[in-house]
Every structure is written in C-alpha cells, then in structure tokens.
Design a protein that fits this description.
Elements (H helix, E strand, L loop, with lengths): L2 E14 L2 E14 L3 E5 L6 H9 L7 E8 L8 E2 L5 H7 L4 E4 L3 H4 L6 H12 L5 H14 L5 H4 L9 H13 L5 E5 L7 H18 L2 E6 L2 H7 L2 E6 L2 E7 H6 L4 H8 L47 E4 L2 E3 L5
Parallel strand pairs: 3-8, 3-9, 6-7, 7-8
Antiparallel strand pairs: 1-2, 1-4, 4-5, 9-10, 10-12, 11-12
C-alpha cells in the first residue's frame, strides 16, 4: 500500500488568557492510499483540531510544528502541510485533501443551490473547464454519493433536503475535485441509525472505488469497527493507542481504550460502565499520564512523567507503563 499521509510529531499550540495550550501534542500517524483510519476519543480530546491542522483551517494565532507530509499526486514528491502558505493551501485544500464536516446544515450555504456549491468546488481546482463540463461533473459527484434523482436534487436548497441527503451532498462536494485523502469528522452525528449505516457504507465504498485515504473521526466505536482498518485512540491531545482495528477493539491495551469499550452499548451487555471524571482542561494537565486521575489502575509512577508509546507488536502500540 503506497504512502499517502505521514504525520510526525505534529503539535498545534493555541493562545489563551492562561497561556499557550496544546490541543494536538506530538501526534504521529500514517495513512496509505486506499486505507481507512479511525480516530476516536471523547469530546475535547483534540480530534477535530487535528483535522483542522491537516486542512490548514486553524484559528488565527495558532502555532504549528512537526511534519505532515502528503503525497498530493501519485509518484510525486510529498508536500509538508505545516509549511504551506495560504496560496499553496488553495491548491491542496479540496484538490488533494478534502473534509466532510460534522454538521451539514451549518456547513452548506443555505442560500445557494446544491449544484452551485458543488460547481464552486470544481471550478476552484479546474478553472479551465467549460460550463457544461462543470455541471456534468457536479451531477456525477451527486450520483457517486448515491443521491437519488441527482438532477432534481442539484437544483434544491439545503433546507429542502433531509439530514442524510445533506450529508451526501457534503460528501459529493468533498470528492468532486478528486482528492486523494478524505477526512470525515463525525459524519453520522444527529442522523437516524439506518441513515448512519448508509453513510458509513457509502464512505467505505468510495474509499475502495476511488482508492481514497480515509481519516474517520468519531466517538462511536461501532462505526469504527465497520469502517476503519486501523484505529488511533486520542486523549488530551496525544495518541495513546494505535493498531489494527480488530486488535485494538478485541484486546485493548490502554486503560482508556478499555474504558471506552466498557462504556459503549452492545447487545450482549445490559449495563454500561462509564469512565469516571472528565477529560482534563488543557490549561491544567497533570504532570504525568493525562489519564492518570481517572484511571483505576494508576500507580505512583504514573504521575511522574508522560509515558512513552510502547510497542506491543509489530503494528500495535500503547502509551502506558502497564504495557
């Protein structure tokens, strides 16, 4: 599997009245062409901020360090996303890497027809196309996203579509310009269960047919099991466990991953066991393991220093001294 995205030591710092905080702290991961990776964790873990860093959409004043190398074209040299100017980002964003945002009703322009919004994404990267070709590509993108009656749906406004169709329109807009990497930030939020299943199936099909690299961000471990080949678990800005989805979900090594699985509903388990406490504030992180105050297995040495990512096997690792 050819390499597509390689992130090494990516750190994002944001200014606050209490000083600089790191919502993304020395994150490293890899995604190959045609490979899907699930990024899971509670709200406030840094998942969305990581995706915004990969899209060049960080808030003003943010500082970025580390590397995020993307192979924008097959057999071409990689680009370090952390060093791109805004002008360079215009070529990469939408063209090489695209994102499906969490809430389609607020992401779509409410006063523009669906077709016009998709055409806008196409023209931004293929300005020499004729009007008829752009229109055809927009309809093809809707058809690719499994939108029924794409010609008529293209002429509608976002408020005229259901939540599932709005999300399909967002997916069509994301893939219209032919990106190599697709980021889906909790794309099934607020959708019915049956529609969630359809969206997950659609993303998986597009990944396989278009050979897309897929970064799937969610807090739903059931969705991860359905879509992702690999899983990275994020907590307080750091990756605390990573490996093949089947291994991480079947035999989690980090106490936080174990807690997430115990707190997830299943047909076999009648009761859920919540993780005590909450994700720590970035302005008040403990000196050692960030999960230590909530961990039932904590030891005295857990509070001393941030544990290193320990290798469990050739393709699985966890950031815990108990490993």
């Amino acid at each position: 599997m050819s390499g597509l995205l390689e992130v090494r030591g990516l750190t994002v710092e944001l200014p606050t009245p209490s000083g600089w905080v790191r919502p993304v702290n020395e994150v490293s991961l890899r995604i190959g062409a045609g490979e899907s990776m699930g990024l899971v964790g509670e709200s406030g873990s840094g998942k969305t901020m990581l995706s915004l860093a990969l899209m060049g959409l960080l808030p003003p004043g943010a500082r970025v360090s580390g590397e995020a190398k993307l192979a924008a074209q097959p057999q071409a040299s990689t680009k370090n996303l952390t060093t791109l100017s805004e002008r360079e980002w215009r070529d990469v964003r939408g063209g090489a890497i695209a994102m499906v945002f969490q809430e389609p009703m607020t992401s779509l322009n409410p006063v523009m027809r669906i077709r016009a919004q998709i055409e806008e994404a196409i023209r931004a990267h293929q300005p020499k196309l004729k009007t008829d070709e752009v229109k055809r590509k927009a309809i093809d993108a809707l058809r690719l996203a499994a939108v029924p009656e794409p010609e008529s749906r293209a002429e509608q406004f976002p408020h005229q579509l259901s939540g599932g169709l709005r999300q399909r329109a967002m997916i069509a807009m994301a893939v219209a310009a032919g990106p190599r990497l697709l980021i889906a930030d909790e794309p099934t939020t607020a959708l019915d269960v049956t529609v969630q299943k359809q969206i997950l199936d659609l993303l998986d099909r597009l990944r396989r047919e278009l050979k897309l690299g897929l970064l799937f961000i969610t807090h739903d471990l059931g969705a991860v099991a359905q879509v992702a080949e690999r899983v990275a678990v994020m907590y307080a800005g750091r990756i605390i466990e990573e490996g093949p989805a089947r291994n991480v979900l079947a035999k989690p090594q980090h106490p936080y991953t174990q807690g997430l699985l115990r707190a997830s509903p299943t047909l076999k388990r009648g009761t859920l066991t919540p993780i005590p406490g909450t994700v720590p504030q970035l302005t008040a992180l403990p000196p050692g393991c960030a999960f230590e105050p909530r961990c039932e297995l904590r030891r005295a040495e857990c509070a001393g220093a941030v544990p290193a990512l320990r290798i469990i096997s050739s393709d699985q690792a966890a950031r815990c001294i108990l490993v």
